[in-house]
């Protein structure tokens, strides 16, 4: 197999290169593409590999050291090959108290691995995760960043055993099944996998207040439509941004040009018409 | 007089396929945008100012005022960046909002972008909630296909791109300037302010950064009017807000109410503390807001009242702990969190959280030394007010407020492990939990 200087075989390099162009098109400045590019690299290799770092560096014309410096800052970027499924147990305070600690301990003992370690078969990486914005469903487990709400040690064990045996598991609030680490990484790089319509809109806890309001007949004040402030406001309307000249003293208008956008009068148009994101 | 719930953003959440454009359109979706796009942008900003809306991301800064800080257009780009990083421990409102109805945010983005003269908006969503990311991507596509975003929006000549950007796991990226650095493809470390993002934000261009719930509240304000919004809430804390109850309550969940509802009212609505147990302590707005106790049950949950009680309204993340819970255990875990998430840019926070963590672990294990409680306070006073960003200040809050209300429990950490004083298995949502 031929390996080009950047580490990826030519056909992989070409395919990722085409993806990278789509990512770049979403941003006015190329460097903004770095986080999605790192997710993309993980979708190929299952971690941020040396080849992946070289690839990002090449696409963005950065040094490999700069790319590494960014990659190591963020916990979702893995420095070692990740398991097919990241099983994250929230052990931030609220979930820990509600049983997250006990769940983590049970899984750790069962799998024979500790925090941020991967089973020998490469199936499962176990992680303690910080608050995952689902505290009303504590204790919370996330598998490849899909919610498994209101867990017990037994329910968590069952899910993990299913993954090990290759049986599908179903998130409480998420897609109908859990995609692999690589597949999810590709979504996080901004490539829609067409699964947005799977799963529920809201879980039970999310609806708790609304349910109570419905049963009590509580509503927000009615919008009577009498407030027509907007209508009286005149219709100078859709003045294009940038139509008015110069900024105030000390504003960004006075700063030295530092980006290409600064020195072109047509920036608003050009920069923002870069086309849809994937 | 008792306050009732006021479902506004949450009103659509129980609808069939609530996240789709079709469902949203059947519930007045994009009516506000269709009107706003034919309105003078200055008028839109004025309306949001008049509504009294204050930022829902924690700090409570008046939203319309923030928009008005942008310098006059100079021909270059200006940006709207929506903060969907939601990582403050206890905070769990933006993710369910986006899962259930991403279009409320997209419509708010359209109106806000138009009002501030932006043609490109970004949603920075934390990378650890993949289904929310999917729903956002799909919603942006649906809106674009319907002509509500993209080029020549609704035939007016206005164009608007919306980029949904996934983070990669870093609490500090919720801090608005760290978020901007992260969005520029760098390590997410805060920037020196001033200049504020309004003057030099994304790519050093004028930028508005707002929380998801702030922006999602805008369509309602435009449709119902400033008076409608400000008819809810208190004199200085207007409108509706999502209150997220979690922990030892009978029915944890999202409760949308006018600001100024009391904690007791909300707790009652959530069925009270679980199993007839009693309240020990709670956070009004996430782990960064000083803890309060049963003494504060009747506190009105508005910015001013919670501030006067020595805490902050923050993100209205009401984490509730009953009398079986060890304060020392909780504070230790929050301290682990801040040490883990400290970005390392400044010394007081980077080194201070490291030391706080060691001391807290000693105390939790019942192996504290005589001077530890004072040492904690000393370290905290060297972090608070001396750190580069608010994360440092936040790291001190659980400790100083914990000691203020429960000093004796910290002192017990000189000789008795927290798990002996408060057996951890008694805390869990299920029985039979062992350490
Ligand atoms: C450490 C830290 C984390 C933060 N995390 C968030 C967050 O996840 N979401 C958010 O909206 N604001 C967060 N903020 C507040 C933002 O800096 C900013 O004030 C907010 O996004 C402004 O929006 P708003 O005015 O609409 O509230 C955080 C602040 C700090 C210091
Ligand atoms: S206070 Fe902490 S998070 Fe903020 S800049 Fe300093 S080290 Fe970074
Ligand atoms: S503490 Fe676990 S999801 Fe918030």
What is this structure's SSE topology?
The complex is a heterodimer of chains A (278) and B (435).
Chain A: H1 10-24, H2 34-45, H3 50-60, H4 64-71, E1 85-90, H5 93-111, E2 117-118, E3 124-129, E4 141-143, E5 146-148, H6 153-165, H7 181-188, H8 208-216, H9 229-232, H10 267-272
Helix pairs in contact in A: 1-2, 2-3, 2-7, 3-4, 5-6
Chain B: H1 21-26, H2 31-36, H3 41-51, H4 63-68, E1 79-84, H5 94-100, H6 102-116, E2 120-125, H7 130-145, E3 161-166, H8 176-183, E4 207-211, H9 212-216, H10 218-224, H11 226-230, E5 240-247, E6 253-258, H12 263-269, E7 279-283, E8 292-293, H13 303-308, E9 317-322, H14 327-341, H15 347-364, H16 372-383, H17 390-412, H18 418-421
Helix pairs in contact in B: 3-6, 5-6, 5-7, 14-15, 14-17, 15-16, 15-17, 16-17
The complex binds flavin mononucleotide, iron/sulfur cluster and FE2/S2 (inorganic) cluster.
FE2/S2 (inorganic) cluster is lined by residues 90, 92, 94-95, 131-132, 134-135, 138, 140 of chain A.
